[in-house]
Amino acid sequence: MALIECIPNVSEGRRAGAIEACARAIRESGAHLLDVSSDRAHNRTVYSFAGTAPAIQAAVLALFDRALAEIDLRQHSGVHPRIGAVDVVPFVPLGGTTIADCAALAKTTAAEVSSRHQLPIFLYEQSATATSRRNLEDIRRGGFEGLAAKLARPEWRPDFGPSAPHPTAGASVFGARTTLIAYNINLATAETAIAKGIAAAVRESSGGLPYVKAMGVALADRGIVQVSMNLTNYRKTSMVQVFDAVKREATRRGVAVLGSEIVGLVPADALREDAARHLQLPEAVEDQILETRLNRRDREPSLD
Questions:
Q1: Strand 44-51 to strand 121-125: parallel, antiparallel, or no bridges (unpaired)?
Q2: Any domain includes 115
Q3: Is residue 238 in a domain?
């Protein structure tokens, strides 16, 4: 069966009722909800669901209907950058689906969402209409607070919708991409400068590891800091390589690594052999394997 995975990031990680309402909207649409991962410090929830193209489109539309009713970005704060209530909506090919199929679905779904909610939407990654819009961090730079000024610039006219932010939902970013691993490493210090220094040392844009995007953030409620990363090609730069690099940098600064965590799901081949123990991941990490969730049909809605 030709399937697509969708992994929207929603700017709400604290209110359980709102998080569940969005999950319920996805479930009731007919898509197969694979995972819900929330973080209070980031104030963000990542939903992972899969299905055929019509099921995915229906789920995304239902999610926006619910999320925009629940979230007001004017009242939102968190350590993760964001420009939208539903901040980013990636489409990833599974099985026999192609990246071109995902790019087409991203565009048609973005057009429908924008029309329904009068929401500015940018296209990124494999769906991007300009090189300057390919990278998510470039689109998101300035955040929700700087969005009105950004949209007023001709070069940042959105691909769909008005050239002004939605008053409560900001803007969204849609696109097709290959598998990405959201991976965080927690450090035994409260000094944000240390996490930021390590992030700069390991990320590709600063001369570090290829296919690694990283930022240092404070987890104030836990009294620690975190190196929060996206690994855009885990086969070329593995989680083990990233963990070892972060640990070396932390040791140089006299800081211990407390452990690491995966946000959402990962392919089985990203956790080969004894990787989970080496990475100091939680024991339940096996439940975050994508293939395991896809095969769990008895407790989830149909993929059709």
A1: unpaired
A2: yes
A3: yes
Residue 193 and residue 112 share a domain: no
Supply the pLDDT for residue 96.
87
The CATH number given to whatever domain includes residue 213 is: 3.30.70.670
User: 221-243 as b/e, with b when 16 or more CB fall inside 10 Å?
Assistant: eeebbbbbbbbbebeebbbbbbb
- Among 32, 42, 76, 80, which one carries the catalytic annotation? 80
Range of the domain at 261: 181-283
* Distance in Å from the first CA to the final CA of the chain: 9
Q: Please identify which residue in the block is written with the tokens 């970005």.
A: 73
The Cα angle at residue 262 between residues 41 and 61, in degrees rounded to 5: 75
Question: What pLDDT does 284 receive?
Answer: 81
Task: Tell me the pTM.
Answer: 0.92
User: CA 89, 95, 99, 105 torsion: positive or negative?
Assistant: negative
Q: pLDDT value at position 2?
A: 82
Distance between CA atoms of 146 and 61, rounded to whole angstroms?
26
Q: What is the CATH number of the domain that holds 93?
A: 3.30.990.10
User: Contact 189/225 with Cβ under 8 angstroms?
Assistant: yes
Rounded to 5 degrees, what are φ and ψ at 203? -80, 150
The answer as to whether 242 is a domain residue is yes
Active site residue 166: no
Listed as ranges, residues in the chain with pLDDT below 70 are: 1, 297-304
User: Looking at residue 115, what is its pLDDT?
Assistant: 98
The token pair at 65 is 């209907």
103: tokens are 């790019």
